[in-house]
Amino acid sequence: MTVPRLIVGLGNPGRDYEETRHNAGFWFCARLAQAWGASLAMESRFHGVVGKNARNVWMLLPQTFMNRSGQAVGALARFHRIEPAEILVVHDELDVPPGQLRLKFGGGMGGHNGLKDITSHLGTQDYWRLRIGIGHPGDRNEVVNYVLQPPRREEQADIDAAIERALDLMPLIEKDDWNAAIQRANTKPAPPKPQEKP
Q: How many CB atoms lie within 10 A of CB 26?
């Protein structure tokens, strides 16, 4: 295993998409940049918004729209000679309920167009993925509309809580303690304790 040199948050650019479920990866990166004290700026050669922390870990928010995310990831990874195994992609996940996370290395793409394009440009599925659950509408014909709509208020609260837990994983990941990070990420969070009546 290896420490990531590039963290990619997936989403769609533009104000129309800012608050939609498909932009959960962007939401995570915005919070991570705050935690890092890193500034983010558009870099046209990498087709995305880019920043880095004090340890030279890069962050990328592709501005190519979701189904062409690989164009941005491939450009930055080639320029900085970053191997696929050194990349962590953070994205929304239909098959995980809001409030839950999944962290894994490699595997399938679950119909996610961003992952499909990244895999095509990198030539491999062997990169890290941190999946932020957004839940499923229950009807496959509703998926496109669902991911391009904002979450309901209670879902947003659950997603925000999951992003906070995802941020807590970063010190483990940066220490190359992936096993501990996976265990923590993939453990279902405990339900809130009921308030005791006075």
A: 23
